[in-house]
Amino acid sequence: MAEKIKIIVNEDKCYLCGGCAGVCPALAIEVHSSGWEFLPDKCISCRICIDACPVGALSAEPLEVSE
Length: 67
Ligand code: SF4
Ligand code: SF4
What we know:
With 67 residues, this protein is an alpha+beta fold. Helix content is 15%, strand content 27%. A two-stranded antiparallel ribbon has the order 1-4. Strands 2-3 form a two-stranded antiparallel sheet. The two termini are 18 Å apart. The site of one iron/sulfur cluster has 15 residues, from helix 1. Keywords: 4Fe-4S, Iron, Iron-sulfur, Metal-binding.
């Protein structure tokens, strides 16, 4: 199984276009007028959102799983 990741947004680049939320197959990103939100429980670590962002505002970090 692929490594679980969390998606990080660079708020200086993100202009809240909603593109990443639109392509996420797991509905793990929500974009509101007030900000960008990642829902780690839904993310399937496919990385599609990273490539979809037109300004390169998204990156991945390993998700630390608490045991
Ligand atoms: S990595 Fe995949 S599942 Fe996770 S937020 Fe990005 S598009 Fe959605
Ligand atoms: S696609 Fe990029 S610029 Fe658009 S809302 Fe997502 S992170 Fe922000």
